[in-house]
Amino acid sequence: MVTVLSTRVHDQLIHVKFLHHVSDKIVSVTFIYGSNDGAEREGLWDELRQIALTVDEWIILGDFNIVSDVEERIGPNPPSLTEILAFNQCLLDSNLDDLQCFGCEYTWTSKREVETRIWSKLDRVLANPFWLIQYPNTHVTILPPGISDHSPLLVQIQKNFQIRKTFSYLNCWEDSQDYDSIVSQAWDLPVKGSAMYKLFAKLKNVRHALIKLHKRDCSGLSGQIKQLKNGLEICQQ
Q: Where are the domains of the chain?
C-alpha cells in the first residue's frame, strides 16, 4: 500500500515521506511531540517551516503542547499569548490548518481536583491545501481519553480512493442566463469548519454546480468539437 521513501528526525518531531501506491503520489506525514518549554518549541516551529518548503500532500498530527486560541483552554494559569501567536504564525507560514474534527472538544486534562483542573486542546491534526485537494474526505475524531490524560486522535481517509479527472473551466458557461445566480447560490451554501476548510468546501460546491450546468446546457459540446476537428482535418488534407 505504501513505501517509506525518507525519514527526518528532530527532537520534537518525526517526518516521513511515503509513496502511496494506489494514487502513485508521494505523501508526507509528520508526528509531533512538542516541548513543554515555549522557547524550545521555537525550534519546532522553524523545523516545520523548513519542511513546508519541501512537501506536496502533507498531514501533521500529535501533541503540540500549546493551544491556538485562549478559548481552547479552561482552568487556572492562562496560556502565554506570545506562545500562542508564535504557534499561529508558524501555521500561517507553513500553510497549515486544522482538519474538521468530531468528538471531544479538549484533548488533554490535568486530572487534578475539579477546582484546579485544566482542560486544553493540545493535540490536533493539520493539513496543507495539497492534502485537502488529494484527500478531501479526511476526518478526525477526538476519542475519550480513558485512563490517559490525552485523548487519542482517530484520522480516517476515504477508503475507496479514486483518481479524479482534472477540472477545467469553460468560458461558454458564462453565456448561460442564470450563470451568475448558479455560482452565487453554490458559493453561499452554509459551510462549517476552519477558514481553509470553508474555502475548499465552497470551491467544491461551485465545481459541482458548474458540472450540472454543463450537463444541462453543454452536454453535446465535446461531440461538436470532435466533429469540427474531423472537418478541419478533412479540409487540411
A: 1-161, 165-237
CATH of region 1-161: 3.60.10.10
> What pLDDT, in 10s, does the model give residues 62-96?
999 999 999 999 988 888 999 999 999 999 999 99
Note whether 72 and 121 are within 8 A (CB): yes
Cα three-residue angle 68-99-37, rounded to 5 degrees:
30
For residue 81, what are the contacts with CB-CB under 8 A and spacing of at least 6?
70
Adjacent-strand bridge partners of 176: none
Least confident of 53-62, 82-91, 129-138, 227-236: 227-236
∠ CA(100), CA(73), CA(45), 5° rounding? 70
Q: The C-alpha cell of 27 is what?
A: 505523501
